[in-house]
Amino acid sequence: MNLGLSLLYAAERTPDAGAVVDGDSRLDYRGLQRVAAGVAAGLAALGVGRGDRVALVLKNRRQTVELYWACQWLGAVVVPLSWRVAAADVAYCVADSGATVVAFEEVGLEHARACSDAADRFVAVGTGGAGSSVDLAARFCAGDDAQPCEPYESLLAAGEAVGAPLGLDDRETSIFLYTSGTTGRPKGVPRSHAAERAGGVSQALHQSYRPGERTLGVMPLYHTMGIHTLLAAQIVGGCFVCQPDWDAASALDLISAERIGSLYLAPTLFHDLVHSPGLAGADVSSVRSLAYAGAAMTGALVERCVEVFAPEVFINHYGSTEVYTYSVHFDQQAAPGCAGRPAINARLRLVRPEVGAGPDDEVEPGETGEIICHLGSDEAFAGYWNRPDADAKALRDGWYFTGDLGRLDGDGNLWIVGRIDDMIISGGENVHPLEVEDVLERAPGVREVAVVGLPDDRWGQAVTAFVVLDDEVAGAGTEAAAARLDAHCLASAGLARFKRPRRYRFPDSLPKSPSGKILRRLLREEFAEPSGSPL
Hints:
It is a single chain. This protein is of the alpha/beta class. Helices cover 31% and strands 24% of the residues. It is built from 17 helices and 26 strands. Strands 12, 13, 14, 15, 16, 17, 18, 19, 20 and 21 form a ten-stranded mixed sheet that branches. It starts with a helix and ends in a 9-residue tail after the last helix.
């Protein structure tokens, strides 16, 4: 059951159901299947065949969805890449994946130019405000050494549409997703048609999607959350409502106008939504299902989401690019931040977080251990692309070692403690950032917070809080803010005194990945020497 056939099934089952919305542009499943087959013919005319790679440097647009499904229909491999990273990083991924065609929009023009030595052909996607596809293609070709570039619309004029992919084995590669590269060069994660469809089915089931579900398509389609939101919607004949650029006010407008029923977002985006000035006048009554991933949500944010949306379903989806779903917790209101129990396709263990530990080195109940997932999961990858070093580190005896720390409570539910690399050892005691962040986020005037360990002569590592304050609180001065936050931590019965921050910094914003995850690593690197008075 390859993904091209999955699209065909949807088109035959619910031909008139809405499939994609992008501004004023709308496609039902009959139209999406026909366009995908037509664009597949255009790609074939450029020399793309089964197994060939097609890179996309595009935002969440109708054309991105069309190109994605065209690749599935043709049996080509889609390589979605972030326009937010440096052009050199995109060029690296294009060369590493072996992509022969690069499709790009205005925001990816320089990224595409950086790929001129790696790819053979280019496709320009016009998005309205910045001009047409023809204009963008002409600007790309302005240089003397430019490769051929086709306007996107020309793909649909290539001739007869490609037939259904009846003979494509679902074990073949569907997509290359690249990890964010927080520890060096991005790693390519080839994922099969079977693994991708299994991930879409599990998301639809876990998040209680209904037939015709309408979901907000804002998590980037180069990210595992975004692509599986698209797949889950397709599996139930649902509608993917594109939002190319994140903006909380615009998201609230789309939720109201398009009657969005499910939201699957990073916690940062939920934070923006529920604290948006436009929330008071917004109609969010259609939303019944909330899911988040990428980081644990603090109790304060969970409470605010429940207050705003009153959801029927509120899940924490814990997973990764490599193995899409590890575990799911279905009632975040009852246990904020809990990662729950293994998902329908997962087996998990907690093992000693030590170099050389194997799958049988399990920790005792209640102890913190590294979370590992069995590679027999239907959603699992088979290994990194051209990275035997990464395989050797993460894949052992049929298990994937996540690098995440967790513990099981008395009921057998999993709680994520943090990344092995994020754990703070202060004065010989282990401090996990999330438990401190959860306390600080409940303090009045705190918008965002990240806790890291910074070098300290006395403590080894000093627990250091980077706190983004509301304007009113920030106006009182940083010393007063630090004193108020320290008093708040001391008054919290849930936080041991030695775990409270020893130092505070008050930036205007926190560094985040393209998917909205706070990058503690960058804070550790930038502020290797902590400043401010110790408490």
